[in-house]
Amino acid sequence: xxxxxxxxxxxxxxxxxxxxxxxxxxxxxxxxxxxxxxxxxxxxxxxxxxxxxxxxxxxxxxxxxxxxxxxxxxxxxxxxxxxxxxxxxxxxxxxxxxxxxxxxxxxxxxxxxxxxxxxxxxxxxxxxxxxxxxxxxxxxxxxxxxxxxxxxxxxxxxxxxxxxxxxxxxxxxxxxxxxxxxx
Length: 183
Hints:
By secondary structure, the chain is of the alpha+beta class. Helix content is 13%, strand content 26%. The strands form two sheets. The protein has a seven-stranded antiparallel sheet with strand order 1-3-2-12-11-8-9. A five-stranded mixed sheet has the order 5-4-6-7-10, with no helix packed on it.
């Protein structure tokens, strides 16, 4: 299975022709949306350690107006990472996130560790997130995600997640399908 993320518009046909159950069987029930092109992710050269960065939010420079509320990004601006097991991760009870190809979710950015974080599914069927001891951390909103010894954080639709300096939004299948229909 290829680890290159798809764009939102790559899902349009499946949303239109498949039932929710069929769509979920093919693509999973949860998605990470990155508002940026694949070229925005900074691929490391071979065998490079994780780049340590300060990932503070930068203020908008004077004279630059932020996009108006409800403004739509260019169609190719949304990358989609399916949150599901691919069989590449050696741990069957988790969905791994990291920079290397043996992760279920591969984020090719120098701020993302080789094995950065992982999702687990609770007995309640919900997804939970933990950091895997990454160099640049994982966050849900402004809250740092604890490591393996800490209590995992439950992830819900519209949660803003950050892996290193890569920011994403978490969507469950029903909301994702509604989002895709707009394209």
